[in-house]
Amino acid sequence: MIRKNTVVIGTQLDNGKGSARWxxxxxxxxxxxxxxxxxxxxxxxxxxEPTALLDxxxxxxxxxxx
Length: 66
Fold this sequence. Notes:
Layout: E1 6-10, H1 27-31, E2 41-45, H2 52-64
Parallel strand pairs: 1-2
């Protein structure tokens, strides 16, 4: 049986601006930085309209896997 890993997490702790954001713990982004953890689906929860924070988190996850 193949087990799929789905993660649901919020973005609030992943805030940060500029290059200094890579120096702090950002749980959503950090989940994607482990080579031995395969996440099949990542659902980000946010309140309301898409924000700059949500966009930044999505871009940073893409950067980790570029």
